[in-house]
Amino acid sequence: MTLATPPASAAGTTTASVEEARLDRVAPQEILRRSGFDSLAPEFADALAGADSFAEAERTVGRYGSGLWRRAVDRAQGRGSAGGDLTRDDDRPLYWARLTLTRELRSWKPGFGITEKGRTRLLDRLERSSRGQDSIRFPAGKGVKRILLTGFDPFTLDRDVRISNPSGATALALDGTWLRTADGSLARVETAVFPVRWADFADGTVERTLRPHLPNVDLFTTVSQGRPGRFDIERTNGAWRGGFPDNENLSRTETVPVADPATQPQWTSTSLPYAAITAASTGRFPVYDNTSVTELPAGADTPVVRPDGPTPGSVARAGGGGNYLSNEIAYRATLLRDRLGLTRLPGGHVHTPVLQFGPGNTDPATGGVTDPEFVRNRLDIIAQVRAIVAVAAAPQESSAHPSS
Asked: Are strands 219-225 and 145-152 parallel, antiparallel or unpaired?
């Protein structure tokens, strides 16, 4: 595929993104170096330089993107070299290495013509392949349960650039693995990771990734980092964006933008077996059935917190999981479940505890990128998510959920 000669901005002078601009800080560079992921960008740049057509560049981008995802999964699951002294449970090398590749791709100056549209297509290919979004593969046949789980990138990086996200770490630890559910059944887990960016969600990245698989899975759960010291099974998700800045430092305060907004509900509900999950012994953190929401009651314009869920005719202002992208991915996934007619499919959102650094390492200005308690907390969260999923995937008396 040969594209027309591009304008100057498409010839490699595109400004680095807000996320890419953080790469040159000390902590990201240390994370890349101590995991061995610092070698990827120069290799990728050389490979791009050798591409003599758009089609070859696209193959190169796909190869490096999927290779990055597989390398991160293998590292997390103990295969191959760790590449350095950072523990294998660390999700941050994947995040920062992806940005080194997108920065190279954004500034790449090919010898052939490329339009801005073509570069955007390559960036999208790199994003999807390096997040596992296009490599979800479940085994065929009967007798095996299929579980789809999603995580997120680190976020609030201007507050502390060292931050890790336990949901992303969980996705790496569980991708392609097998587990025994609480009733002894064998289950295969496939995972993907999503960006913390409002625009990507508005562009349909969640639906594009999940739609091909939801009709064929036995359970799905979106996972994100939530409150300190606790897990939450979020009972209700709301159709509202609350405006907290994303990883591009952009804010959105609006109704969650979805296809066919005329039929869009204000609320969707979990179909995860929250009673069974909260009653089970899954790990050291308490697990709560969170039923609270914030709404505008019918005919009112002042937000009200409802501990027991929304009232009839109300307008959403926050689901149980708030009004950030964790709420939105849960809303989108459960709305997709309902629109596909999968009313008995167990699915919903799990909020993990906040991943905290150990005492003496809490100041981002002086602290190290890791410490023993930080690692212990992340490992415990990963193990507990796995246990929660095993409980959720066991047969329940009824998997039906309330209408939304």
From this structure: parallel
**393 has pLDDT over 50:** yes
pTM, to two decimals? 0.94
Tokens of 382: 């990963």
Mention every residue, 6+ apart, whose C-beta is less than 8 A from residue 343: 271, 337, 400, 401
Q: Six-digit token pair at 227?
A: 């409150």
The model's pLDDT over 100-150, given as tens digits with 9 standing for 90+, comes to: 999 999 999 999 989 999 999 999 999 999 999 999 999 988 889 999 999
List the strands of the sheet with 287-290, edge to edge: 178-180, 186-194, 145-152, 219-225, 347-352, 231-234, 287-290
C-alpha angle 35-36-40 in degrees, rounded to nearest 5: 125
CA-wise closest residue to 173 among 56, 282, 87, 102:
87
Using CB atoms within 10 A of its CB, is residue 280 exposed (0-12), middle (13-18) or buried (19+)? middle
Query: How many Cβ atoms from other residues are within 10 Å of residue 265's Cβ?
Result: 17
Q: What 8-state DSSP symbol labels residue 196?
A: S
Look up residue 131 and give its two tokens: 């997040």
Closest CA to 389 of 187, 251, 152, 234: 187
